[in-house]
């Protein structure tokens, strides 16, 4: 069984996105990072159409 590994790099663009959403929605930084990573993982592992 071969497991594909994918990496996610926290870049300035991501951190800016997190801060904008955090300010807009009033959520904590860690909650926003968790939300964005969850969305990315959903996109990365979504079945291809």
In short:
Helices cover 61% and strands 0% of the residues. It is mostly helical and 49 residues long.
Keywords:
49 residues; mainly alpha; CopG; Ribbon-helix-helix protein CopG domain-containing protein
Question: What this model shows, in words?
Answer:
By secondary structure, this protein is an all-alpha fold. The protein has a domain at 12-44. 61% of the residues lie in helices and 0% in strands. It contains 2 helices and no strands. α1 packs across α2. This is Ribbon-helix-helix protein CopG domain-containing protein.
End-to-end Cα distance: 23 Å
Our Rg estimate from Cα atoms comes to: 13 Å
Q: How many beta strands in the DSSP annotation?
A: 0
Return residue spans where pLDDT drops below 50 for at least 5 consecutive residues: none
String of helices and strands: HH
Taking the sheet with the most strands, its summary is:
none
Shape: elongated
Average per-residue pLDDT, rounded, comes to: 75
Overall helicity: 55-70%
Question: What is the count of DSSP helices, taking H or I runs of 4+ residues?
Answer: 2
**Strand fraction band?**
under 5%
Pfam family, one: RHH_1
Domain Ribbon-helix-helix protein CopG: 7-43
InterPro entries: CopG
Protein name: Ribbon-helix-helix protein CopG domain-containing protein
